[in-house]
């Protein structure tokens, strides 16, 4: 259990830093026009919000510290 907390914490911190650095994005598709069965769509790249990265860093750090401090 102790090792699992540390590993998950470190992974969350790394992903949180990646998001805060601005490298994380996802694609969103919008339908612009639809006439019968014909569709015109547009795909946009959107960045993941910064607060998700900050939350990942904080939660990951708490899990890692909890894993280090946990007694056997």
Summarize the entry for a quick read.
With 72 residues, the chain is α+β, with helices and mostly antiparallel strands. The protein has one domain (2-69).
Which terms summarize this structure?
2 helices; 29% strand; alpha+beta; single chain
Descriptive notes:
The structure is a single chain. The chain is of the alpha+beta class. The protein has one domain. It is built from two helices and two strands; from the N terminus they run αββα. The protein has helices spanning 2-20, 50-69; strands spanning 25-35, 38-47. A hairpin with a 2-residue loop joins β1 and β2.
Given the helix and strand composition, which structural class is it? Answer: alpha+beta
Strand order of the largest sheet: 1-2
- Main sheet overview: 2 strands, antiparallel
Distance between the termini: 9 Å
Low-confidence sequence ranges? none
Rg from C-alpha positions?
A: 19 Å
| Overall residue-averaged pLDDT value | 90
Domain unit count? 1
Number of helices: 2
Helix content: 40-55%
The counted number of beta strands is 2
Order of helices and strands: HEEH
Strand content: 25-35%
Shape: elongated
Give me the secondary-structure topology.
Layout: H1 2-20, E1 25-35, E2 38-47, H2 50-69
Antiparallel strand pairs: 1-2
Helix pairs in contact: 1-2
